[in-house]
UniProtKB/TrEMBL annotation:
Family label: Belongs to the class-I pyridoxal-phosphate-dependent aminotransferase family.
InterPro entries the UniProt entry points to: Aminotransferase_I/II_large, Asp_trans, NHTrfase_class1_PyrdxlP-BS, PyrdxlP-dep_Trfase, PyrdxlP-dep_Trfase_major, PyrdxlP-dep_Trfase_small
Protein name as catalogued: Aminotransferase
Domain Aminotransferase class I/classII large: 30-394
Cofactor(s) for this UniProt protein: pyridoxal 5'-phosphate
Organism in which the protein naturally occurs: Undibacterium jejuense
Signal peptide from the UniProt entry: none
Molecular function in Gene Ontology: identical protein binding; L-tyrosine-2-oxoglutarate transaminase activity; pyridoxal phosphate binding
SUPFAM superfamilies with a match to the protein in the record: PLP-dependent transferases (SSF53383)
PROSITE patterns documented for this protein: AA_TRANSFER_CLASS_1 (PS00105)
Length: 398
């Protein structure tokens, strides 16, 4: 048909391309550091004990599979809101926050983008340079012009704060600013508390619309500590969008569990926002799937399971920190002329390692070690069995 014959091949996803090349590699010693998933020390994606227990409880109920409400399971939305904003948050008490279950963090971002396109169609979106590669495409597909603000500074291996701050200061009122609430993907470089204070002030003063993406709560410094940025923005009093994801923190990638929260200035405004958000959901997929939401709601609302989850999440966080430390120490021993201490300062699953595209390619060709061309490595894919090979390969290409 002429309809189809004119269709061109879409560009390949660069990160999925790495996984394809990795899968085709016959070397028994191959290591994939290009992934965006947490692996345990055996190189496996874990199934958390708290999830197993919650699923056992749910199975016992043999509940009928009715539709969930458009905005998702009420118990889930409530538990998520308390996790994200804090149970004693004023925005919850004053009913100024609304939360809708979403199809993962990606679905939450898309709901927020579609909602904003209806009510702020003339605003432009600003994402960090660099950012999670889907941010741009998501907001562009919702109809926005997407710009970048300076973020990563390759010379300091940290945040170019003055550049970022100046960019926010120059944005027109009503601009939508996408910020990573913690554990910046892809760099691992986060802002300090003082820097956040300055960002919150400039966002508030200039009337910008903050959209916080929190895909890694609990992977940085802990569930509470990682949630601080969201809470501080909520206290600042302006409009606020928050997308969050449980893909990593519950190791529930394929169940697609996330949520979008919006903070308004009154309960009445919040109710109107929710009614409009429900229209966005209804016309996209009607209502979310129930299993993942039931599991997360059960864990969060059952004290023993919640404690277990917090322990298991702490286990993932600590293991990542140990791998960062081992990475730095082992490189110091093998390549003492090079400085990698910054890897300990980074947070979350990823590290901008500073490796160049050429070095990444050499590692792939010589040792079957796969990283992203930007030098991004997934620290959560390192383990006690593969780290020495990885270090040896890096030391050779430095
Ligand atoms: N935001 C960021 C920063 C992410 O890294 C990711 C996924 N890795 C997402 C959103 C999407 O999360 P999900 O997989 O739950 O859709």
């Amino acid at each position: 048909s002429p309809l189809f014959s004119a269709i061109e091949m879409a560009p390949r996803d660069p990160i999925l391309g790495i996984t394809e090349a990795f899968n085709a590699d016959q070397s028994p010693a191959k290591v994939n550091l290009g992934v965006g998933v947490y692996y345990d020390d055996n190189g496996k994606v874990p199934l958390l004990e708290c999830v197993k227990k919650a699923e056992a409880i749910l199975i016992e109920k043999y509940a009928p599979r009715t539709y969930l409400p458009i905005e998702g399971l009420a118990a889930y939305d409530k538990a998520v809101q308390e996790l994200v904003f804090g149970a004693d948050s004023a925005v919850i008490k004053e009913k100024r926050a609304i939360t809708a279950q979403a199809i993962g963090g990606t679905g939450a971002l898309k709901l927020g983008a579609d909602f904003l396109q209806r009510f702020a169609p003339d605003s432009e979106v600003w994402i960090s340079d660099p950012s999670w590669e889907n941010h741009r495409a998501l907001f562009e597909s919702a109809g926005f012009k997407v710009n970048t603000y300076p973020y990563y500074d390759a010379t300091t291996r940290g945040v170019n704060f003055s550049g970022m701050f100046a960019a926010l200061k120059a944005m027109p009122a009503g601009s939508i600013v996408l910020l990573h609430a913690c554990c910046h993907n892809p760099t691992g470089a986060d802002l300090t508390d003082d820097q956040w204070t300055k960002i919150i002030n400039v966002v508030t003063e200039r009337g910008l619309i903050p959209f916080l993406d929190m895909a890694y709560q609990g992977f940085g410094d802990g569930i509470e500590a990682d949630g601080q940025v969201v809470r501080r923005f909520a206290e600042a009093g302006g409009a606020l969008f928050v997308s969050n994801s449980f893909s990593k923190s519950f190791s529930l990638y394929g169940e697609r569990v996330g949520a979008l929260s919006i903070v308004a200035s009154s309960a009445d405004e919040a109710a109107r926002i929710m009614s409009q958000l429900k229209r966005v959901i209804r016309t996209n997929y009607s209502n979310p799937p129930s299993h993942g939401g039931q599991v997360v709601a059960t864990v969060l609302a059952t004290p023993e399971l919640r404690q277990l989850w917090e322990e298991e999440l702490a286990g993932m966080r600590v293991r990542i920190r140990e791998m960062r430390q081992a990475f730095v120490e082992k490189l110091k021993a093998k390549a003492p002329a090079h400085q990698f201490d910054f890897v300990m300062q980074q947070r979350g699953m990823f590290s901008y390692s500073g490796l160049t595209k050429e070095q990444v390619q050499q590692m792939r060709e010589n040792n079957s070690i796969y990283a992203v061309d930007t030098g991004r490595i997934c620290v959560a894919a390192l383990n006690n069995k593969n780290i020495d090979q990885v270090i040896a390969s890096i030391a050779k290409v430095l």
